Amino acid sequence: MRIFVGIELTERQRAAAECMARCARKSMPGKYVEPRNYHVTIAYIGETDEAVRDRAMRALEAAARASAGAAPWCALSAAGFFRRADKAILYCGVREEPGLLKTAQCVREALREDGVPFDPTPFVPHITLGRNVRIDEWTLAGLIPEACETEIAALTLFESVRVDGVLRYTPLYRAPVERKRV
Predict the structure, then answer these.
(1) CA distance linking residue 61 with residue 31, whole number of Å
(2) FRET label pair with 15: which of 23, 115, 132, 150, CA 20 to 30 Å apart?
(3) pLDDT for 85-119, tens place per residue?
């Protein structure tokens, strides 16, 4: 099984990101992600077995407790891209709020402590909209999402599964992010 830790989007955030992707498609060809797969990846674990999956679930519980009071928010921001402009990964940005960054740090520390290997690439919060996209700078500059933000309710362990040739990200486990009472 192939797994990763991420944050699920609200329907409003998903719709805002989907609107950006629809606008991008008009002048930037590429392979676009199905909106149901939109998420923010915190840690990519990759191909693994059930024992590692179970340790990842425990780590999510620990991370959710450790990030209590961090007030993690998921707020969309302008579009951007990784790699070359002729074969780019197009994304909807996610603001680097202090609570979100602390939560991501808690997740990665908990995975490390539980012996769960993951890709150590630095956390850059974003929602992948498309791959192998040919970037048009004018269109990119105009891709600003509707203002929508929300407090993160849970950390999610996803499984990446190919169904009839289509990639699907299925939630396997959710660890509610606890809030400290004041």
Answers:
(1) 35
(2) 132
(3) 899 999 999 999 999 999 999 999 999 999 999 99
**Element (H or E) spanning 25, and its range?**
helix 11-25
Q: Residue 2, by phi and psi: left (phi above 0), alpha (psi -120 to 50) or beta?
A: beta
H runs (alpha helix) in 29-160: 50-66, 98-113, 137-141
Mean pLDDT of 133-150: 86
Angle between helices 98-113 and 50-66 (to 10 degrees): 140
Nearest to 72 by CA among 110, 111, 102: 102
- Write the DSSP string, 56-90: HHHHHHHHHHHTTTS--EEEEEEEEEES-TTSEEE
> Residue 179's pLDDT is what?
66
Would the pTM count as exceeding 0.70?
yes
- 3-class DSSP state of 137: helix
**CA separation for the pair 39, 94 (Å, rounded):** 10
Query: Which is it for strands 88-94 and 73-82: parallel, antiparallel or unpaired?
Result: antiparallel
Q: The tokens 């929508």 sit on which residue?
A: 148
Q: Lowest-pLDDT range, 27-41, 81-95, 100-114, 134-148?
A: 134-148
